[in-house]
Every structure is written in structure tokens, then in C-alpha cells.
């Protein structure tokens, strides 16, 4: 399978190259980010998105705070701390962003050798490489839940576009396919920004996997018709008790799955588990602009003076989740991730 590179170093090694996801599915366009402001803007506007991918972009982007010829380390370190705060503030819900920035800050404060910039670049590259390896392992564990002929429903995008590797939820589908299992994937379009139809359907079709897009509100009808064998989604933060924050609509899907007796699986790397958050109600949910609902993609779809409720994520309680797949295995209830780091 040809891997999509959602985030990488730029060709000259001086910037962060992203596949600009705002342009998909009509254009596959890469952009090089060359400043902290550009990195923040790309994360905030979802040019780069998905919990693991924004962690990687944040870590790589932080290296742009240090000049190649930086000689005053204290100045460089304080610039890094300010830049990390700026990047961290872009999106609050995915724990991977703070997790990756904290790793970078630890390197900055423990630095002993000649080039702080080189050490930061090495750590950011490790974060990328580790994510790629975790995706593969999630795929292998996740594929054990997928039988030949499975009809899988997913939401938002938890694929290569959301990570440094082959994805989380979609990794399981890719590995199952590589194992020769026939799968069919149903994708919620994922209102309001359509990550399902614009990104997941594009990514799966590109990989030659049979995909059907549906409006979010049609999912329960498919389940009642007996046309879904399992739901498989990603996560932006998993609390110690197994509550899962993921794209808005995930909770609704989990309720429908429970009602129809369809297994509901979540896939995520270690970097998405937050042992410091006891339960889902502590998770800060990002509220996004009203314009995404009023006039997303240009056309006006609600009165301009109507109030808008537009949370980017919701929390699915652990009791609606059949199992959580990580790079360490398949975890069954009762969940206890309080010691996971
Ligand atoms: O707002 P986004 O597009 O960054 O949200 C990402 C998600 O919620 C994904 O569904 C995903 O499961 C988390 S990233 C693998």
C-alpha cells in the first residue's frame, strides 16, 4: 500500500510539509510551513488534522522556533516555551498535541550537546517514526476484530491522513485487506466539515477499498437493516476510565450501535491515552466557529442570525464501547488506563 504522508519534513529540511486537507478530495496539494504562525494556522484551520498528525506537526513545527545559527541557548529555550504555548492553544481536545509538545520541551530543558536545534529535530523525527510503528501495531491488533466479508461503519477520518503512518481505525481495515479479507466500509460524511466524505472516502478509494458514503443521520437505518457488522472509529483523547472523546457524532453512533447490538470499537495509539484525566466530563471540548455550520464550504445553510451550537467533539461513555484497540493490544471492559503513559 502506498502510504499517504500527511506530515513530513520539507524537501530542504527547513520546514514542515503537510498535505493540505482543506483541498481534498478535489486537489492533492502539499504546503511547506516555515514559521510558528504558519504551523498554528495550519492546525487551527484543519489543513493538518487528526490527533496523532497534529501532535507530529506541532512537534516538528516547534523546531522552527530555533534558528540554524542560534548561539544563545537561553534565548532559544525561552523562544521554544513561548512557541509551544502558542501551538498548544490551537486545539484543546486531542491530547496528542500537548503530549508531543511536552516531549519536545523536555528535550529543550535537558539539552547538553552542541545543537539544540538538532536535538529537537531528532525528537520530532522520533515522534513521527514511533507513530508510524504504533499505527502498524494498531492495524495488526485491530485486524483480529475484522472477519472476512465484514461491513464496517466508521466516522470522521482516522486514517493515514490523521497520523504519521497508516492510520488508527483505518489501519485495521488496511491490514485486514492485506491479509486477504474482503471488507466493505460505510463512512458517515461527518458534519459539518465532512472529514468522512472528503477524506476517509478519498483515502479508502485510493487504496482500492469498497466505500459507501452516507449522511450521518442514516447510520441507524443501516444498522437496523442488518447491514453493519461492526463500528470502528478513532479517538482524540481517552480518559483513564475508558471514556472516549472523538469527532462529534461518535456518541450518537455508539448509542445506535448499542441499540442494534452492533459491536463498537475504538482504535488509538498510546499517545491518545490520558491517564491524568479520570473521566470524560473533564475533557475540554473544542467549540468551533458558527460559520462552519451557517455557511460551510461557501453556501449559506442557516439564517445568519440563528445561534449555532458547534462542538468539534463529543464523549462516548466507556459503557457503550465493546473494546479499545491500541498499539499494545485489544482492551476489553472494565477499562483502567490510569497507569498508561
Ligand atoms: O477535527 P479533526 O478532523 O482533527 O478530528 C479528528 C477526529 O476526531 C478523528 O475522527 C479521529 O478519530 C482522531 S484522529 C485518528
Total of DSSP H or I helical runs spanning 4+ residues = 10
Mean pLDDT: 96
Quaternary structure:
single chain
Uncertain runs with pLDDT below 50, 5 residues or more?
Answer: none
> What percentage of residues falls in helices of 4 or more residues?
25-40%
Q: Structural class given helices, strands, pairing? A: alpha/beta
Largest pleated sheet: 7 strands, mixed
Name the strands of the widest sheet in spatial order.
6-5-4-7-10-13-14
Q: What small molecules are bound in this structure?
A: 5-S-methyl-1-O-phosphono-5-thio-D-ribulose
Order of helices and strands: EEEHHHHHEHEHEHEEEHEEHEEE
Q: Tell me the Rg in angstroms.
A: 20 Å
> Strand portion, in percent?
15-25%
Give the CA-CA distance, first to last residue.
31 Å
Q: How many beta strands in the DSSP annotation? A: 14
Describe this structure as you would to a colleague.
With 341 residues, the chain is of the alpha/beta class. It has 10 helices and 14 strands. Strands 6-5-4-7-10-13-14 form a 7-stranded mixed beta sheet, sandwiched between helices. Helix 1 runs antiparallel to helix 2 and helix 5 packs across helix 6. It is globular, with a radius of gyration of 20 Å. The two termini are 31 Å apart. The model has no long low-confidence stretch (mean pLDDT 96). Bound molecules: 5-S-methyl-1-O-phosphono-5-thio-D-ribulose.
Amino acid at each position: 500500500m502506498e502510504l499517504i504522508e500527511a506530515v513530513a519534513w520539507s524537501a530542504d529540511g527547513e520546514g514542515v510539509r503537510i498535505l493540505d486537507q482543506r483541498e481534498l478530495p478535489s486537489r492533492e496539494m502539499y504546503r511547506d510551513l516555515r514559521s510558528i504562525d504558519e504551523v498554528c494556522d495550519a492546525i487551527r484551520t484543519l489543513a493538518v488534522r487528526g490527533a496523532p498528525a497534529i501532535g507530529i506537526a506541532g512537534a516538528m513545527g516547534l523546531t522552527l522556533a530555533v534558528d540554524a545559527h542560534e548561539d544563545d541557548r537561553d534565548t532559544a529555550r525561552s523562544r521554544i516555551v513561548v512557541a509551544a504555548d502558542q501551538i498548544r492553544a490551537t486545539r484543546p481536545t486531542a491530547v496528542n498535541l500537548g503530549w508531543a509538545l511536552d516531549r519536545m520541551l523536555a528535550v529543550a530543558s535537558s539539552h547538553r550537546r552542541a545543537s539544540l536545534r538538532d536535538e529537537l529535530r531528532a525528537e520530532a523525527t522520533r515522534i513521527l517514526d514511533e507513530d508510524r510503528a504504533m499505527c502498524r501495531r494498531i492495524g495488526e491488533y485491530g485486524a483480529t476484530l475484522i472477519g472476512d466479508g465484514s461491513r464496517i461503519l466508521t466516522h470522521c477520518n482516522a486514517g493515514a491522513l490523521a497520523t504519521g503512518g497508516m492510520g488508527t481505525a483505518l489501519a485495521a481495515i488496511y491490514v485486514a485487506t492485506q491479509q486477504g479479507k474482503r471488507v466493505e466500509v460505510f463512512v458517515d460524511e461527518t458534519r459539518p466539515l465532512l472529514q468522512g466524505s472528503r477524506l476517509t472516502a478519498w483515502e479508502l478509494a485510493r487504496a482500492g477499498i469498497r466505500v459507501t458514503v452516507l449522511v450521518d443521520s442514516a447510520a441507524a437505518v443501516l444498522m437496523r437493516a442488518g447491514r453493519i457488522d461492526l463500528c470502528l472509529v478513532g479517538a482524540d483523547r481517552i480518559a483513564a476510565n475508558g471514556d472516549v472523546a472523538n469527532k462529534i457524532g461518535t456518541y450518537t453512533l455508539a448509542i445506535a450501535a448499542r441499540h442494534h447490538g452492533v459491536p463498537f470499537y475504538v482504535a488509538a495509539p498510546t499517545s491518545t491515552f490520558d491517564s491524568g484525566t479520570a473521566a470524560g466530563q473533564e475533557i475540554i471540548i473544542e467549540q468551533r466557529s458558527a460559520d462552519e455550520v451557517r455557511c460551510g464550504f461557501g453556501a449559506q445553510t442557516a439564517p445568519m442570525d440563528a445561534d449555532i451550537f458547534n462542538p468539534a467533539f463529543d464523549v462516548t461513555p466507556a459503557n457503550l464501547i465493546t473494546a479499545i484497540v491500541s498499539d499494545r493490544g485489544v482492551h476489553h471492559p472494565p477499562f483502567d488506563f490510569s497507569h498508561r503513559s
